[in-house]
Write a structure and sequence with these properties.
- The C terminus is likely disordered.
- α12 runs antiparallel to α15.
- By secondary structure, the chain is mainly α.
- It has one domain: MetI-like (MetI-like fold, Orthogonal Bundle).
- The chain contains 15 helices and no strands.
């Protein structure tokens, strides 16, 4: 036992040296990436905060109706957002929504192509699998530290941490949808002269679309679960009042902000759910 403890493998020191190297050698890249992501978030905030809140409520209600064709979902979206305004958390909700939308867009933009590639190349998925497991099992605070060092305080490190946590879902579900395509369909497409890209776009992706949409929903839910943690590195949103309520043991404020997070999560889940259930919310 003493032999093992006396000859500790310096994993932590190696990680520190690696982060130090990244900070020095990749400063230009991380500054550029931080600027790009900050502009994206600022643009989303402008879209969500510049119009009157009731205009955004009407727009989101219309989007809910367009995607779901459900009076119940549209009504719940409208009433839920009005309740958030009533509680005085509209600004924080738009900040959280901007972070979630940005994280979901980045995760899907990376996750879907990687999922397709891993479905076509099993060896690639064998390499990715332990990395994906690590992303979702390692404590979030572990990679919040280097994210904070590389990107500083604000929305960007919260976005990066959220993407790291959420991106395994679209990768895995996209791959699952592609490999679940019946071989008879792909063989028929090939027999009619379809190229590999046509098989992908005309057969595999349409068949995998429910799984891909499930990946989107999972990404949104995982992003919302990171709201409070992202607040610890300076990300604005509904996580901030939750953290402040925790620090001051303010039950009322914590419950209000937490309920707003739950309502937003239900709205987004119902809006982008891939199934075609009835009209109930």
């Amino acid at each position: 036992m003493e032999f093992l403890t006396d000859h500790k493998i310096p994993i932590g020191i190696w990680a520190k040296h690696f982060v130090d190297w990244l900070t020095v050698s990749g400063a230009w890249f991380f500054d550029w990436l931080s600027t790009v992501l900050k502009h994206i978030i600022d643009l989303l905030l402008l879209v969500l905060q510049w119009p009157h809140p009731l205009a955004i409520v009407a727009a989101l209600t219309g989007i809910a109706w367009y995607f779901r064709r459900s009076a119940g979902v549209a009504l719940f979206t409208c009433l839920g957002l009005l309740f958030i305004i009533n509680q005085g958390y509209w600004k924080e909700t738009t900040e959280t929504l901007a972070l979630v939308v940005a994280a979901a867009a980045v995760s899907m933009a990376i996750g879907v192509p990687v999922g397709i590639a891993s479905a076509r190349r099993p060896w690639l998925y064998e390499i990715l699998r332990p990395m994906l497991d690590l992303m979702q099992t390692i404590p979030t605070f572990v990679y919040l530290i280097p994210a904070l060092i590389l990107f500083g305080l604000g929305m960007v490190p919260g976005l990066i941490a959220t993407v790291i946590f959420a991106i395994p879902a679209p990768i895995r579900l996209t791959r699952l949808g592609i490999i679940s395509t019946p071989s008879a369909l792909t063989e028929a497409a090939v027999a009619f002269g379809a190229t590999p890209s046509q098989v992908l776009s005309k057969v595999e992706l349409p068949y995998a679309m429910p799984q891909i949409m499930a990946g989107l929903t999972q990404t949104i839910m995982l992003s919302l679960s990171m709201v409070v943690i992202a607040a610890l590195v300076g990300a604005n949103g509904l996580g901030v009042p939750v953290v402040r309520a925790l620090n001051t043991v303010n039950v009322a404020r914590g419950f209000e902000a937490g309920l707003c997070i739950v309502i937003l999560a239900i709205i987004l889940d119902r809006m982008f759910r891939a199934d075609s259930e009835g009209d109930g919310a």
